[in-house]
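Why do we bother with a discrete structure alphabet at all? Because it lets us treat a fold like text: something you can write down, compare, and reason about line by line. To make this less abstract, here is a complete entry for Amino acid ABC transporter permease. Read it the way you would read a sentence in a foreign language you are learning: slowly, and without expecting to understand everything at once.
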Amino acid sequence: MTAVSDMNTPRQTLNVGFRPDGLATRLRRRYFRTPANALISLLGMAALLYLAYHALDWAVLKAVWSSPDGTSAVCRDIAGACWAVIQQRWRIIIFGLFPYDEQWRSMLACVVMVVTIVLSCLPWFWKPLRLSILWCAGFIIFYVLMRGGLFGMRAVMPADWGGLTLTVFLYAAGVLIGMPMAIAMALLRRSEMPLVSRMTGALIDGVRSLPLVTILFTAALIFPFVLPDWLQGDKIWRVIIGFALFFAAYQAEIIRSGIQSIPVGQEEAAKALGLSYWQRTGRIMLPQAFRNALPPTINQLVITFKETSLIVIIGFFDILASGNAAYGTGEWSFAYFEVYIFVALVYFVFVFSLSRYGAYLERRMRFGQH
């Protein structure tokens, strides 16, 4: 018993007096270690409090939130924000040119697409068959709701779609079509056949050297002059294909970088085991490539969502163009700042959600490595 007690004594002695650092200790160590650090921290906090107070005073305390008579008279002589423009014009921002009495269809279609995106992020749907069924069902329901012509719904052409619904649809369709294209381009560029590899590299470099506006303009306005009538399709689908091609060119290089980061010995070992090309690619190379290239992939998805605002150049009313129309009348022309803040908040919600999901995937895959 004495020997056991003596052996435990040092461990107990080491634990005596151990206390985790509290919040005050961490703040003092991080921001007030020296007099210079303390001065800079105090000045920074004072500046932040000053800006936060004035922003809160303008956006909340002195703001006007509604207009009982539906006019902008209540916002003429105020010192704060005029959020009444959002209360009166939010339908234009969210639905664009969609017919007023059919806007419930646009709202429901937007919800369907967002729910489809959210469900596809759940691990249970990470099976090819389940994911394919989910996205096919989501796109069919979305298109039926927006286009109409069935179940007693009035037909609405894609030229009259707009707002947040159109932005979400273009983004989802571009990524859904562009990701398989990117995988194919990345694999073709690594092909052992020089002609295939060089032609794919020329296509990728050619698309990446062009601005997205040029590709969208060509898809929307130039292709109808060079394609036969049966191959033209609707303008929105040509724009989606151009959008997907631009996304695929950049994403292909991201995937290729992920493949190149895999040690060469893994592929050689797979060949020695007798695995075929598709078994090596689908079970060994691509899963590791996506894991290695996850941060730039999330970054590319965020950039792609923000680039949907460029479709206004070719005549589509996305959420940013709809926001311009919301304050474009003489009645609310002074409230452009509030409209842009509202649109920015919508973009922030989507982009921040994408970034947080990317962080979740990184943690999940890092845990899987251990």
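What the structure line is telling us, in plain words: The mean pLDDT is 84. Residues 336-369 form the longest helix (34 residues).
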